[in-house]
Amino acid sequence: MFTALQPQRQCSVCRQANEEYQVLANSWRYSSAFSNKLFFTVVDYDEGADVFQQLNMNSAPTFMHFPAKGKPKRADTFDLQRIGFASEQLAKWIADRTDVQIRVFRPPNYSGTIALALLVSLVGGLLYLRRNNLEFIYNKTGWAMAALCVVFAMTSGQMWNHIRGPPYAHKNPQNGQVSYIHGSSQAQFVAESHIILLLNAAITMGMVLLNEAATSKGDVGKRRIICLVGLGLVVFFFSFLLSIFRSKYHGYPYSFLIK
Q: How do residues 60-105 score in pLDDT, each as one tens digit?
């Protein structure tokens, strides 16, 4: 692993990737199949800048496999941007390059169990306090909001993030420019999924306002304003969403307002 872990580098992705790399290395170290066929090493830029220069490497983190014989090929560089850096994905890549199977063992993490217990306790306490009046359970608006939250999370790619473990964003080491939208249709950044979530929410809000303007029986002037606001939200944010789709799927011919 070629990385830059020093605090002055401000590489949060490097720290996350290092954690996954250490999990994988320890899984191999304490495996019953452990042997000297495979070694895990780390090169930090501030301690081995000459190595980075010799390999013409200008970004971190980067994972490379060095075979016992011959020079590394293109497939010996892990496609971090497309696959992410989760230990399980790294283990699959290592198996493809070396035929060494590594079963990943993660240290126990009780944060999910604690969060679930707190959620159950909170819901149970709320139901207990409102035990004499449980009409809020039948509140359609509340259930609709909860359903929308789940839909936004799933359609924005949060599950993909959980499985692949992509970086939050990408900072170009040459000019310092930060990219929040991945340029490929095969990958995404965590920040990108947050942006898509907000865009979908804004479009949905516009549709809700349009429906409210069409079905309510209030003042005509107020309904007209609500209709215009809703239409503006749908048109602008859908144009923005379409422009992001167009930037990822190169050659897509259609655009609307924003290119």
A: 888 999 988 888 888 888 888 777 888 888 999 999 988 888 888 8
Burial class of residue 24 in the structure, from the number of CB atoms within 10 Å of its CB (0-12 exposed, 13-18 middle, 19+ buried): buried
Measured CA to CA, the distance from residue 258 to residue 75 in angstroms comes to 37
pTM of the entire predicted model: 0.56
Say if residue 67 is preceded by a cis peptide, omega within 30 of 0.
no
Report how far residue 4's alpha carbon sits from residue 15's, in angstroms, rounded to the nearest whole number. 8
Q: How far apart are CA 23 and CA 192, in angstroms?
A: 27
CA angle 117, 120, 126 (to 5 degrees): 140
Sign of CA dihedral 181, 18, 99, 97: positive
Q: At CA 105, angle to CA 103 and CA 107, rounded to 5?
A: 170
At position 113, the amino acid (one-letter code) is T
Q: How far apart are CA 209 and CA 35, in angstroms?
A: 64
Sign of CA dihedral 155, 79, 183, 43: positive
Tell me the angle at which helices 87-98 and 12-29 cross, rounded to the nearest 10 degrees: 60
